[in-house]
Amino acid sequence: MDGFDQTVNVKVIIATNQANTLDPVLLRPGRLDRKIEVPLPNRQQKRLVFQVCTAKMNLGDEVDLEDYESRPDKIGAAEVS
After folding, report:
1. 75 contact partners, CB below 8 Å, separation of at least 6
2. In the chain, how many domains are there?
3. pLDDT at site 80
4. Where in the numbering of this chain does the ATPase AAA-type core domain appear (predicted)?
């Protein structure tokens, strides 16, 4: 990638939820040539994220985390937290 000295061990990590919109130039060999897919969380994983994010919060009685866990919405952990 432009601007990086080849003798330095530099790792670049990017994240997107729209990989299909990335410029193909970025995906050429020697650039961003490894892809790691992080799938959407299942119900149990959502529960764990909610537990971690709300552990130190005083939630009101009207907050029903089980309702959020069971929703079929396609949301990632960032939206959950």
Report:
1. 40, 41
2. 1
3. 56
4. 1-40
